[in-house]
């Protein structure tokens, strides 16, 4: 671990960012350019004291999880992320199989979306980032571990909770779409990839998945119109726009309702519901 190089890199990257680069307001007048240490710590979900010690060359060796959070908070490119890991004395994550590092370009767009649900997912359906409205509508899956990180696994192994977001009439279509998307990833990444391991695990634990997997349906797209259900707000009809990275390894999903419609009003209500939940400590 190169403490001096790590500390200098973190400080330089922090100072190069503006509040608006990470979705923050300009706030009061700043004495120096860049983000404050407490702002980076908040974005990385760690204490200000811990982050400060890293910048002052006094902190312990950060874990992989801490480094991933810092890379996301500081909007690092893949090359910058790799450098961060090396200076911290860690092996560099495999860019093909480890896609938890959010593409900075998608993150910048997500940071500017606060009036409609939006989230960033990996090619395998791992939730990488969500805005507040998406958290309220779909729940928070960013902390899932193991196979449960992937939407397709949760869909077939936890149907009671995962399918509650969709009308019963749409369950079959959603099942086929998720399996077809995994088949597409399997073809692109290979049988020995995480996609292959995930498919084999699902074949083992879900007869429903195994039946659909045998159909050999392949698709790499999202339904552009869907109905989602929130337990308090009810059904919401939305259109789904998708923005991919160049390698299609990650996608930003933006859910919008027809302007002036009752569904748009329900999305506004999600903001109220979410604020109440956060205030009450339920999330």
Automatic annotation (TrEMBL):
Signal peptide: none annotated. Gene3D superfamilies: 3.30.450.180, lambda repressor-like DNA-binding domains. SUPFAM superfamilies: lambda repressor-like DNA-binding domains. Residues 30-81 form the HTH cro/C1-type domain. InterPro entries: Cro/C1-type_HTH, Lambda_DNA-bd_dom_sf, MLTR_LBD. Pfam families: HTH_31, MLTR_LBD. PROSITE patterns: HTH_CROC1. PANTHER family: BLL4672 PROTEIN (PTHR35010:SF2), BLL4672 PROTEIN-RELATED (PTHR35010). This is Helix-turn-helix transcriptional regulator. It comes from Microbacterium invictum.
